[in-house]
UniProtKB/TrEMBL annotation:
Residues 96-274 form the Mur ligase central domain. It comes from Bizionia sediminis. Residues 18-82 form the Mur ligase N-terminal catalytic domain. Involved in cell wall formation. Catalyzes the final step in the synthesis of UDP-N-acetylmuramoyl-pentapeptide, the precursor of murein. ATP binds at G97, S98, N99, G100, K101, T102, T103. Its EC number is 6.3.2.10. InterPro entries: Mur-like_cat_sf, Mur_ligase_C, Mur_ligase_C_dom_sf, Mur_ligase_cen, Mur_ligase_N, MurCDEF_CellWall_CoF430Synth, MurE/MurF_N, UDP-N-AcMur_synth. It holds the Pfam family Mur_ligase_C. This is UDP-N-acetylmuramoyl-tripeptide--D-alanyl-D-alanine ligase.
């Protein structure tokens, strides 16, 4: 079936779906294959659950006239998303980066939705399946689309850009994330910059943080929309006033008080302000959106407990974000301070060096108690009286005594796979 014909079928559906556990009535089900499952085998079930059509690539699972057989379900999903993106004809803003992607996306969406009907990536649907689903979730009511793109190896951002074909792009930063897949920091820069390559090649617009020399150097031939902290008539000037603990910024004579902690969130806020101004969102609306945004999902959440105030930042971690979080944590006035840190994943051959560096940094800062959890941190060589090490979370859980927390302030940070939000279950409310 030709994509334009399939698209006509899709327009009569309520949504695109790839999981029978989340089927919505009159949706179009795409029978994707995984390592341990074949979506084709769920085609009949999808129809029973209310799907209007099922798209399969194994004709043996054809059910009735509601079955659409294609050569590759995944490629069809991706091609349909690109076709739908052009059918809608709306501006698409794409963003990626090593740290802060999701927070920045939420801030941008909050700002732009003050003025426009927006549609943005939900959760972490930012890969070769998530990006197409994000595009297909946009409707004729959508005025601006916001697409988050994640990657852990070269050529992935280029591939996602070819699907979404954005008109605007923003890269939050280049940090020590997914070093194993990218092949080091230089590989991260090259991989993330594939978004720049696409936008420059297609003469599109790039928002850049003019304080970041990498962003500046990579966009010399681009159509840029810059923001920064240095006085310059060529770009939007935004100032960091404080971050103790919440980030407070100033634009002209207006102050925005956010619910985001850490100076590292300043650039995320500044980007949202700059993008809002470019799209002519009134500043009072920009201010309102940023001040209303409260982080969730284990991202820099402030949680009160009987013995301590917790900074829960357990959604993800890499050496760059871990170091930034520790430096911010050390600046806080509350004492004593406890840092509970979990392993950082996907660092490849740099893992031992990076975990050693983080444990040494933690010891060097005014942090009173350091609890390291995970097999990588367990093997670090830094020794100090304030360090405790546990090879697994269960080891920590078995030995942890809530009364051992010194009180004051506690930082919890680790990679998603460590699921350090489980620490909350061990601390009385």
């Amino acid at each position: 079936m030709e994509i334009h014909t399939l698209h006509k079928y899709f327009l009569n559906c309520s949504a695109a779906c790839t999981d029978t556990r989340n089927i919505s009535k009159n949706s179009m089900f795409f029978a994707l294959k995984g390592t341990h499952f074949d979506g084709n085998s769920f085609a009949a079930e999808a129809l029973k659950l209310g799907a209007k059509y099922v798209v399969i690539d194994n004709p043996q699972y054809a059910v009735n006239e509601q079955t659409i057989v294609v050569n590759s379900v995944l490629e069809t999903l991706q091609n349909l998303a690109t076709y739908h993106r052009h059918y809608l004809g709306i501006p698409i803003l794409a963003l990626t980066g090593s740290n802060g992607k999701t927070t920045t996306k939420e801030l941008i969406n909050g700002v732009l939705s003050q003025q426009f009907k927006t549609s943005a990536t939900k959760g972490n649907l930012n890969n070769h399946i998530g990006v197409p689903l994000t595009l297909l979730a946009m409707t004729t009511d959508t005025e601006i689309g916001i697409v988050e793109m994640g990657a852990n190896h070269q050529k992935e951002i280029a591939f996602l850009c070819n699907i979404a074909q954005p008109d605007y792009g923003y890269i939050t930063n280049f940090g020590k994330a997914h070093l194993e897949g990218f092949g080091g920091v230089d590989g991260v820069i090259k991989g993330k910059s594939e978004m720049y390559d696409y936008l420059i090649t297609h003469n599109k617009y790039i928002f850049i943080n003019a304080d970041d020399p990498i962003q500046v150097s990579k966009t010399k031939t681009a159509r840029i929309i810059p923001f920064g902290t240095k006085k310059n008539q060529k770009y939007t000037l935004i100032t960091l006033l404080e971050a103790n603990p919440f980030v407070c910024v100033k634009f002209k004579d207006q102050v925005i008080n956010s619910h985001l902690i850490g100076a590292y969130n300043f650039n995320n806020i500044a980007a949202a302000i700059s993008i809002g101004l470019y799209f002519k969102v009134p500043f009072k609306s920009i201010k309102k959106a940023i001040e209303l945004y409260v982080p969730t999902n284990n991202r820099s959440q402030i949680i009160s407990r009987e013995k301590t105030t917790l900074i829960l930042d357990a959604y993800n971690a890499n050496p760059s974000s871990m170091a930034a979080a520790l430096h911010h944590f050390a600046l806080q006035k509350e004492t004593p301070k406890t840092a509970i840190l979990g392993d950082m994943f996907e660092l490849g051959s740099a893992s031992e060096e990076e975990h050693d560096a983080i444990s040494s940094l933690a010891v060097s800062l005014p942090i009173d108690q350091i609890i390291l959890i995970g097999s990588h941190f367990f093997q670090t060589k830094t020794t100090h009286a304030k360090i405790e090490r546990y090879k697994t979370f269960n080891d920590f859980k078995t030995n942890f005594k809530p009364q051992a927390l010194m009180g004051g302030l506690t930082l919890i940070k680790g990679s998603r796979g460590m699921a350090l939000e489980r620490v909350l279950d061990l601390i009385a409310q």
